[in-house]
Amino acid sequence: MPITLYRGDSRPPDPLNPADPPTAANSIRGAGGFQPWVITPLATGREVINRCIVPRGPVPALPPPADQTSLQALLTTSNVSLIDVLRNIKAEKTRRTIHLSTDTTIDSGGYPTGYVYQMQFNLNVQALGQGAVTPVNADTQLASATKANVFFDGATLATSTLFGISGGPVNPGVEAAFLTVIPMVYITHYCIPGKADAGSATRPWIAF
């Protein structure tokens, strides 16, 4: 059963001027979906997660300019945890980040009155990144009040091309931070900017 996640963005699905060619700067379609400010190889994203799980992997070498961030410094510490990384992700607001924030609620990404995009994924989750792999059927499986989880789209993290770290309470919403790009194929609907709730009668969902 797919899980629905949301992301806010200032960009429209297509260029506002139909005469303009779509680019990553003027539209989500031009970007081919969502991309973090700094795109990392899949291997590097996995290294970020594995660095936080005992037995710890090596310190990932984040590509510039992410190598100058507090996340890079955090990953060099000997006892870094998944929740440490998730808290860093929530706090970091520069354009040097390697993650994509999504949420289980429509009040997501800091853009609730901008464009809101709805996405659907078939994901698995490991509590604390270890132990049993469970299909995600509800937001409660991504939640964790004091720790963090690892989610991915394959049978294991090693075989996945979509993955990240999730945590936080169900109310107001669970953060699911992807350490990969999110291709356009996962976007199903969007809402135009407005003050009404996304999905309401005056601000309905539109097929992407």
Task: Please describe what this structure looks like.
This protein is α+β, with helices and mostly antiparallel strands. Helices cover 14% and strands 26% of the residues. It has four helices and twelve strands. The protein has helices at 28-31, 42-51, 70-75, 82-91; strands at 3-9, 33-34, 100-103, 115-121, 124-127, 134-135, 144-152, 163-168, 175-178, 182-183, 187-191, 206-207. The strands form three sheets. It has a six-stranded antiparallel sheet, with helices on one face. Strands 1-4-11-12 form a four-stranded antiparallel sheet, with no helix packed on it. Strands 2-10 form a two-stranded antiparallel sheet. It is globular, with a radius of gyration of 17 Å. The relative contact order is 0.20.
Determine the mean pLDDT.
94
- Kindly report how far apart the N and C termini lie: 20 Å
How do the strands of the widest beta sheet line up side by side?
3-9-8-7-5-6
> pLDDT below 50 for ≥5 consecutive residues: which ranges?
none
Top keywords for this entry?
four-stranded antiparallel β-sheet, 4 helices, six-stranded antiparallel β-sheet
Give a short synopsis of this structure.
By secondary structure, the chain is an alpha+beta fold. It contains four helices and twelve strands.
Please write out the topology.
Elements: E1 3-9, H1 28-31, E2 33-34, H2 42-51, H3 70-75, H4 82-91, E3 100-103, E4 115-121, E5 124-127, E6 134-135, E7 144-152, E8 163-168, E9 175-178, E10 182-183, E11 187-191, E12 206-207
Antiparallel strand pairs: 1-4, 2-10, 3-9, 4-11, 5-6, 5-7, 7-8, 8-9, 11-12
